[in-house]
Write a structure and sequence with these properties.
about 120 residues; Rossmann fold; 3-stranded parallel β-sheet; 7 helices; about 65% helix; about 5% strand
């Protein structure tokens, strides 16, 4: 199993460097690629902040990508991405929301948007 770095995922999704995108595809297609919530958070930060990609498009691309890899806490990760795509919240807040919904964890926050969603 190989944990993917954000740069590998970004090259795969964006296909902006042909050689690296091809190498990323080989790594992902071998069926042994693994992603974590932390790395997906970085990917989202770069896609939104650097590339100005819309939330809905980020959501669609990542949910499709997740079907090709293994992941830490799949239910949490998928719900976090869906929540991010449909709400005006930072991704870490979406992760907290997902933990509350999926695992029943109590979330303590002063963030008014997150409180409203919870």
């Amino acid at each position: 199993m190989a944990i993917l770095d954000a740069n590998v995922i970004l090259r795969y999704l964006l296909n902006d460097n042909e050689d690296q995108a091809s190498e990323a595809e080989k790594i992902i297609r071998n069926g042994k690629a693994h992603v974590t919530i932390e790395i997906i958070a970085e990917v989202i930060y770069v896609l939104k902040g650097v590339y100005s990609i819309e939330r809905g498009q980020i959501m669609e691309s990542l949910l499709e990508f997740l079907s090709e890899v293994h992941m830490t806490e799949p239910e949490i990760l998928k719900l976090s991405i869906e929540t991010y795509g449909k709400n005006n919240l930072d991704f870490p807040d979406c992760v907290l929301f997902a933990y509350q919904r999926v695992k029943g964890y109590e979330i303590k926050t002063f963030d008014k948007k997150l409180i409203k969603l919870l």
